[in-house]
Amino acid sequence: MMSQSAKPKAVVLLSGGLDSATVLTIAAQQYDCIAVSFDYHQRHASELNAARRLAQRYASEHRVIHLDAGVLAGSALTDHTIKVPEQSEEGIPVTYVPARNTVFLAHALVVAEVADANDIFIGVNAVDYSGYPDCRPEFIEAFQAMANLATRAAVEGAQVRIHAPLITLSKADIIRRGVELGLDFGLTVSCYQADEQGRACGVCDSCRFRRAGFEQAGVADPTRYQRR
Amino acid sequence: MMSQSAKPKAVVLLSGGLDSATVLTIAAQQYDCIAVSFDYHQRHASELNAARRLAQRYASEHRVIHLDAGVLAGSALTDHTIKVPEQSEEGIPVTYVPARNTVFLAHALVVAEVADANDIFIGVNAVDYSGYPDCRPEFIEAFQAMANLATRAAVEGAQVRIHAPLITLSKADIIRRGVELGLDFGLTVSCYQADEQGRACGVCDSCRFRRAGFEQAGVADPTRYQRR
Predict the structure, then answer these.
(1) Which of A140, B62, B81, B87 stands the most exposed, by the fewest C-beta atoms within 10 Å?
(2) What distance in Å separates residue B105's CA from the closest CA in chain A?
(3) Measured between alpha carbons, how far is residue B89 from residues B73, B94, B122, B132, B136 in Å?
(4) In chain A, whose CA is at the least distance from the CA of B100?
(5) Given A107, A145, A152, which is nearest B142 (Cβ)?
(6) Within an 8 Å CB–CB cutoff, is residue A41 touching chain B?
(7) Taking CB atoms and an 8 Å cutoff, what residues of chain B touch A134?
(8) Which residues contact B220 (CB under 8 A, 6 or more apart)?
(9) Of A71, A134, A154, the CB nearest to B150
């Protein structure tokens, strides 16, 4: 069923970082977007403020879903006693959050079914985040297959589609795509340990990928850093 | 990695109803069980009290995970303005909660990965609840396939198994199995609209399946009813 809007609805997972902001602007070309963010006492609460600003500009609705603080424990992103690494590690990073994208997509599926939306967008990337199992194309495909057996809409014939438009792009390509679509990257926060003003640390994995991406894309970096 | 206990760990989804209590006693035969329950402002909060009593007796640990009250909205189980039906409906029941088992299993997967458990138990049943898409064997299989691509443990070679030991059993068979294993069904609450004392309404789908099950199993029904 179509909403009153001319565009069909889609659910877009929006962290407030560079990647998910680009996904939102991509999705907004064709869909009326419901942005979904999660509050799980993550270190980078300034990302959530960024998500609010981005949703106001590019989405028609923003849902902030509270996750049980105890559930996603056990990684450097939620456990303040684990130090965020300043150099890339071998294998799966300490910033990996157990089954996080499964939990995020499960909630997106609920929001999609209630809103009568068949399309879910997620900004996973298999290039920079090759160490995260749930950023791989095979995970996204398996989640989509499961989703198409999970819901009333699917049983009644709808096809749920999980879109991961950044999955094979480099950070520079993602930035170029965002620039093409008029995305204001100054609204985004990527840093794992940004301060309360949203200023980035400049040294964590996420900051280093982001900074290198702007350099490679030949685009001025609008990020505000705590130190350079 | 094995825990200090002689048995391997498993995560068991425990609502406090008859089915999940039976699953817990089945799992406890072979596993050291972490029971997981959800608090999502469901009508039958007395079920959660039942879950606590059951976990104390049959599990080594009980995690109650709070879900965002707004997320699982839109069904008779969470929306108090929709009347719980007193007769079975055609098709998918009004008590269907969008993508509920996907959200429940996603959280169970997080708990399992953090606890180093590879086995997850869920009390879905495709006989009495044939109208629920996420109670079918094909859904459980698809979730398991997805889970085996989602986690660090899976990437490192572990096999996640989703066990649904009741999936093809009748309610009478489930009750007989519980009796065999010494389960005290008086601890369980199945009713969609039990009162604060845990007394069942006797007329909702869940009560009618349960009552008929005890009759067919030839087992005395320990349920306390508000009316008969």
Answers:
(1) B81
(2) 9
(3) 20, 8, 24, 12, 18
(4) A110
(5) A145
(6) no
(7) 149-151
(8) B214
(9) A134
Closest to A127 in 3D by CA, of A212, A66, A59, A215: A212
Nearest CA distance, A64 vs chain B (angstrom)? 9
- Rounded to an integer, what distance in angstroms lies between the CA atom of residue A121 and that of residue A29? 13
Q: Which of residues 116-175 of B touch A (CB under 8 A)?
A: 133-134, 136, 138-139, 142-143, 145-147, 149-152, 154-155
**Hey, are the CB atoms on A113 and B103 less than 8 Å from each other?**
no
For B136, the closest of A72, A102, A149 (CB atoms) is: A149
What mean pLDDT comes out for the span A106-124?
A: 94
CB-closest option in B66, B102, B150 to A150: B102
CB contact (8 A) between residue B99 and residue A92:
no
- Contact status of B65 with chain A (Cβ, < 8 Å): yes
For residue range A182-219, what is the model confidence (pLDDT) as tens digits?
999 999 988 878 887 788 888 888 888 889 999 999 99
Per-residue confidence (pLDDT) for residue B227, from 0 to 100:
61
| Residue range A19-43, pLDDT digits in tens | 999 999 999 999 999 999 988 766 5
The distance of B217 to chain A (nearest Cα, Å) reads 31
What residue of B is the nearest CA neighbor of A96?
B152
End-to-end CA distance of chain A: 51
DSSP state of A42: -
A165: which 2 tokens? 């438009």
CA distance B184 to B182: 6
Number of H helices, E strands in chain A: 7, 5
Across A43-52, A90-99, B40-49, least confident range: A90-99
| A143 vs B65, B110, B146: nearest CB | B146
B170 CA to centre of own chain: 15
Highest CATH level, class, for B9-217: alpha beta
Q: Mean pLDDT for chain A?
A: 85
Tokens of A101: 């994208």
Burial (CB < 10 A; 0-12, 13-18, 19+), residue A89, is exposed
Cβ pair A40, A71 in contact under 8 A:
yes
A40 touches chain B (CB under 8 A): no
What pTM did the predictor assign?
A: 0.87
Helix (H, G, I), strand (E, B) or coil at A219: coil
Residue A43 to residue A64: CA distance in whole angstroms = 16
Give the tens place of pLDDT for each residue, B179-223.
Answer: 999 999 999 988 878 887 788 888 888 888 889 999 999 999 999
